[in-house]
Amino acid sequence: MDRMLQSIYTGMLTKLSASDVAGALTAETASQHDKYQLVFNGLQPNLSTIVSQLGTLQQATLGNEMAEYLLVRNTTDGPQGFLIYFLLGEDGVWRIDGM
Q1: Which residue of 5, 6, 12, 88 pairs with 65 in a disulfide if CB–CB is 3.0 to 4.6 A?
Q2: What residue ranges define each of the domains in the chain, with the CATH number in brackets?
């Protein structure tokens, strides 16, 4: 399950690096789609640079219908952590519900 969830995240990043916002948005839940569409489109000119600086997924808490990961990014103030949430949809597909 961990490998599958991490592949959803890295797949989204790959699509963002290629400026494929529509493709990247398939990794988001419906409730987050519009929010991230605005964010990704706003960052469009710099997506590949931003994606390369996001950090790496680390610790995870995995459940039957929800998973929480810690994304660790190195900053000038040292490592900082950000939470990323995945939800299992009614269609049986896992998607990112918050970053």
Answers
A1: 88
A2: 2-98 (3.10.450.50)
